[in-house]
Design a protein that fits this description.
alpha+beta, 5-stranded antiparallel sheet, 3-stranded mixed sheet, about 35% helix, about 10% strand, disordered N terminus
Length: about 725
């Protein structure tokens, strides 16, 4: 063909049974059968094996494509890295991590917008982790981030451990954030819990690890972390709680501060010293497990004491402001300037509560009062007689035995078991596993209705009911209505031996008033925004069946015709008295209209108060508050007394008198005849004088007159 350029090209015949030169060049195996050849098919080409035993190498074009995509990926990664570094340099400058996150100054207002409190943060000077004693930094590393010195900002092992623990416990109990992540969150990010914020947190953590040393990261973390009591930074916390510089703290003090980081508002030792000490010892054990201290050194660490903290006196609602402030700060956490948070406090009702307590005339004894709406909105709170002398909030922080007020849960369990107020009960002596409850006046009426037993607060009937319905069901009733404090699994709980707070017990009575349970007491208008989706789905209230609620209202109404008759109002009212052993604590909790109010009176040291009982001072304080709060007239008509009404757990003997430390809260009631006149002193303190006659001499053998004054104790009427 090379010599015939002038001839037109011709198609050569194709011999399909013969290989061309190209085929001979690439097919080395001439013995390969025809049916195993490629035959021009692309699939067979891909599936063809290398004659040497391995796959054929990729074609040069495929290799070039892979290399091209690798180069492109590296280029895109470099561009993204440059963009990320630029974004971090603008949004997360390293200088910001040197400054504590100055929280906004919060102004609390009443429900009408009137300011009631204003608070700012206590911020200490920065610390240098390299200059702190080893046990100070080790305490934080042991409990917060043991692998801090080895990881690069995040700790996969810690995250996996936290995930396993949370799954096992059925909730979020443990976090996997490192100290670097916590610094990133505190210094640069908001408090929202979105996935985007978590990604930014991880990126900033890597950024901090790349540009700062470990000691620099730890120093900045310790300088701006929150320690409760509105205190930020290790130096401020050490001075606030211990009155010393952080360089001079001992192991126990460092461990206590390290333990506060988990829940600073709840564990602040000025309000929860017991919880702070338990957390302190947990940190000490963690230090020993991590090898920072020896077991012998850990055994020598003692629970630490803290300085008394007395916040600045507030114009109104001081105890309330202290209680609501942590939630208010959480609500205003995303605000970077001064914030105003509206609370549920009603100034008129708060002033009424303070006036009633002030006029009670109590001397050594203390008092607490909580008023809330049926849905849990707290409108008034008094935690003691004088905040300036004692900021300890006895309404929220004190745990005392509730006495017969706890019988609410015993009778609720009985109503759930199918009983009614007309069900007959045996008011006679009983022995339960060696325990012999008794009515302290040694009077037992035999078969009586549950309504009458509740009205006269019979101890033996309450013990029988607890045994009949089961201790577990009584505990369940208490838990359903919101009681969270420990309750022993024993029959004596029916008489109120488990300790509770006034706030929690008042909320339990609010659940009966509201018809839905549990009722969560709150001090902010909008408290649902902070709930997680899981809480929103599972934490909703349950409705109390109408029949059971009507039975409970029947019983609580009967109580005001019995032991609680000093609390009777001119409108329907419901409540229960309570007196702990030896008259150490006296309670009255009840509701009328849209208000649920609880009152406690007693001594801080739990010493006895002769003559103190729930149907006396607490019931009278409750009535005085309600008359003013509901703007109703005081009771002037004679009160119908339930027959044999008494409180067996707080009967006063004939030789006992009211402790002088209690003082008088109301004018005595009664009639005095003499000198041709009759002077009558009313229950509300009014005095009327009318012509009368002198009483005839009383025969020596005549029985003494019965005392007909209201109260838990005394003879039957």
């Amino acid at each position: 063909m090379a010599d015939r350029w002038d001839e037109p090209m011709r198609h050569e015949p194709v011999d399909t049974n013969r290989r061309n030169s190209i085929g001979q060049r690439y097919e080395l195996d001439d013995e390969t059968p025809r049916d195993h050849r490629l035959g021009g098919r692309f699939d067979d080409f891909l599936d063809r094996d290398d004659p040497s035993g391995g796959d054929l190498p990729p074609s040069p074009r495929s290799a070039r494509n892979i290399g091209r995509w690798i180069v492109r990926g590296i280029g895109v990664g470099i561009v993204l890295l440059v963009i990320a570094i630029g974004w971090l340099a603008v949004t997360a400058p390293l200088s910001r991590s040197l400054k504590p996150p100055t929280p906004p100054s919060i102004t609390l207002t009443a429900d009408d917008g009137t300011p009631i409190a204003r608070r700012g943060a206590i911020i200490g000077a920065p610390v240098d982790a390299a200059k702190l004693p080893a046990h100070v930094t080790d305490a934080f590393l042991a409990i917060e981030d043991r692998r801090f010195r080895s990881h690069w900002g995040i700790d996969p092992r810690g995250i996996l451990r936290a995930f396993v623990h949370n799954v096992g416990s059925g909730g979020v109990r443990e976090g996997g954030s490192t100290i670097t992540q916590q610094l990133a969150k505190n210094a640069f990010l908001d408090s929202d819990r979105t996935a985007a914020r978590k990604i930014r947190e991880v990126m900033i953590s890597f950024w901090l690890e790349a540009w700062l040393s470990k000691d620099e990261i730890l120093s900045r973390y310790l300088s701006n972390v929150y320690f409760g009591d509105n205190v930020y930074g290790l130096r401020a916390a050490s001075k606030h709680y211990f009155g010393r510089e952080p360089e001079k703290m001992n192991v126990g003090q460092a461990a206590m501060l390290a333990g506060l980081v988990k829940a600073p508002s709840r564990l602040a030792p000025t309000s929860n010293l017991e919880g702070a000490r338990k957390r302190e010892m947990l940190v000490v054990r963690a230090m020993a497990e991590a090898g920072f201290i020896t077991k012998a050194e850990a055994a020598e660490v003692e629970p630490q004491r803290v300085l008394a903290s007395r916040p600045t006196r507030l114009p109104s609602g001081t105890y309330f402001a202290d209680w609501v402030l942590p939630d208010a700060r959480d609500q205003a956490g995303e605000i970077k300037t001064e914030a105003t948070v509206k609370t549920t406090l009603d100034r008129r009702l708060q002033n009424t509560a303070e006036r009633v307590v002030r006029q009670a005339g109590l001397r050594q004894a203390q008092v607490a009062m909580v008023a809330m709406r049926r849905d849990g909105r707290v409108v008034a709170m008094v935690g003691g007689k004088d905040y300036a002398k004692s900021p300890f909030n006895r309404a929220t922080q004190a745990r005392r035995q509730p006495g017969s007020t706890f019988k609410l849960f015993v009778y609720l369990a009985a109503m759930r078991a199918g009983m009614t107020p007309d069900t007959m009960a045996d008011d006679s002596r009983i022995e339960i596993a060696g325990w012999k409850p008794k009515n302290d006046d040694n009077r037992y009426l035999g078969p009586i209705t549950l309504r009458r037993a509740f009205a006269r607060s019979s101890n033996v009937v309450a013990a029988r009911l607890t045994q009949e319905v089961g201790v577990r069901n009584v505990i369940k009733a208490a838990r359903d209505l919101g009681i969270s404090t420990p309750i022993p699994n024993e029959a004596t709980i029916g008489l109120g031996t488990a300790e509770v707070s006034l706030l929690e017990l008042t909320a339990a009575y609010a659940a009966v008033a509201n018809g839905k349970y549990p009722v969560h007491p709150r001090g902010l208008e909008d408290s649902g925004a902070s709930k997680s989706w899981y809480q929103s789905l599972t934490g909703g209230p349950s409705t109390m069946p109408d029949g059971i609620r009507e039975h409970m209202l029947d019983l609580l109404g009967a109580s005001l015709r019995g032991t609680g008759r000093a609390a009777v109002l001119t409108l329907p009212a419901y409540g229960k008295t309570g007196t702990s052993q030896n008259s150490r604590d006296a309670w009255f909790i009840g509701f009328a209209g849209d208000l649920v109010v609880g009152v406690w009176v007693g001594n801080d040291d739990s010493s006895p108060n002769a003559g103190l009982h729930g149907g006396g001072i607490p019931a009278q304080l409750w009535r005085q508050f309600m008359v003013s709060a509901l703007n109703i007239a005081p009771v002037v008509a004679p009160v119908v007394i339930e027959e044999n009404a008494m409180d067996p757990e707080a009967v006063v003997g004939p030789d006992e008198a009211l402790d002088e430390s209690m003082g008088d809260i109301a004018a005595p009631e009664g009639t005095i005849d003499g000198f041709g006149m009759q002077m009558k002193m009313g229950r509300d303190g009014s005095i009327s004088i009318t012509p009368g006659r002198d009483r005839a001499p009383v025969p020596p053998d005549a029985p003494p007159p019965r005392d007909r004054r209201g109260g838990d104790e005394g003879d039957e009427e």
